[in-house]
């Protein structure tokens, strides 16, 4: 019976296939770092010696790190500025009417999405394996109609019970 068979999720299958490819590539990288040839019969790498036998002299490095001088007076004289909130949701209070309006928009989801292309794909049902949004809307609409009919039937029954007792 097809009733109890689980639907295949194409996105999770694709994710598993990509993870397997990534694991294979990581194994090849480890092999290359270890110095073993990736494929049998591959040519050996040549040495890095310069032609003509010339030698490269290394640039002497000092053991002590070099630091830049910092003017301590300017640092101490700078007033402590209030922390600027990079993320508006971390701001403890909105500033004026515009901030309150932004908070209300964010609360009710009226702000634009960060990735409009993804929203368009999800809305049109172009990603295989996911149900289109129009199907989900239809299911929600039908559920609303059924629950409304049940509520009206219960209210009608209560009305008849109250009026029938008189």
Features:
166 residues; mainly alpha; 5 helices; 51% helix
User: What is Rg?
Assistant: 34 Å
Low-confidence stretches: none
Overall shape: flat
Strand content: under 5%
Average pLDDT rating: 75
Order of helices and strands: HHHHH
Range of helix content? 40-55%
**Largest sheet at a glance?**
none
How would you sum up this structure, described in words?
The chain is mainly α. Among the domains are: 10-36 and 114-130, no CATH class; 132-166. Helix content is 51%, strand content 0%. It contains 5 helices and no strands. The chain has helices at residues 10-34, 72-77, 96-107, 116-124, 133-164. The longest helix has 32 residues, at 133-164. It is flat and about 115 Å long. 0% of the residues are buried. The mean pLDDT is 75.
List the helices and strands and how they pair.
Layout: H1 10-34, H2 72-77, H3 96-107, H4 116-124, H5 133-164
Quick recap:
With 166 residues, the chain is mainly α. It is 51% helix and 0% strand. Among the domains are: 44 residues, no CATH class; 35 residues.
């Amino acid at each position: 019976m097809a009733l109890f068979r689980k639907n295949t999720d194409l996105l999770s299958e694709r994710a598993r296939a990509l993870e397997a490819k990534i694991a294979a590539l990581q194994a090849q990288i480890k092999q290359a770092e270890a110095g073993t040839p990736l494929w049998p019969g591959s040519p050996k790498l040549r040495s890095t010696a310069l032609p003509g036998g010339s030698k490269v002299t290394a640039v002497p490095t000092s053991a002590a790190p070099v630091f830049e001088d910092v003017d301590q007076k300017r640092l101490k004289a700078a007033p402590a500025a209030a922390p600027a909130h990079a993320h508006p949701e971390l701001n403890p209070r909105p500033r004026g009417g515009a901030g309150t309006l932004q908070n209300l928009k964010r609360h009710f989801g009226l702000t634009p999405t960060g990735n409009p292309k993804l929203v368009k794909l999800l809305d049109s049902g172009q990603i295989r394996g996911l149900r289109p949004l129009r199907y989900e809307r239809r299911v929600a609409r039908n559920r609303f109609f059924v629950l409304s009919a049940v509520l009206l039937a219960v209210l009608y029954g209560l009305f008849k019970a109250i009026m029938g007792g008189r």
